[in-house]
Amino acid sequence: MRHDKAAMVIDLARRMAGSAEGLTLDDMARDLDVGRRTAERMRDAVLMLFPGAEEVSDPPTKRWRIRGGLSAFEQAPTTTELVELNRAALALRRADEPVRAAALESLERKIKSAVRSTTLNRLAPDLEALVRAETIAVQAGPRPTADESMLAAIRGAVLAERALGFIYSRPGAEARRRTVAPCGLMFGRANYLVAADLGTQKIQTFRLDRMSAVEALDQTARPPEGFDLAAFANRSFGIYQDDVEDVALHITAEGAAEARAWRWHPTQTLEDQPEGSVIVRFTASGMRELAWHLFTWGERVRILAPDRLKAVMADELAAAMRAHG
Question: Which of 63, 175, 184, 322 is a Cys-bridge partner for 229, taking CB atoms 3.0 to 4.6 Å apart?
Answer without folding.
Answer: 184
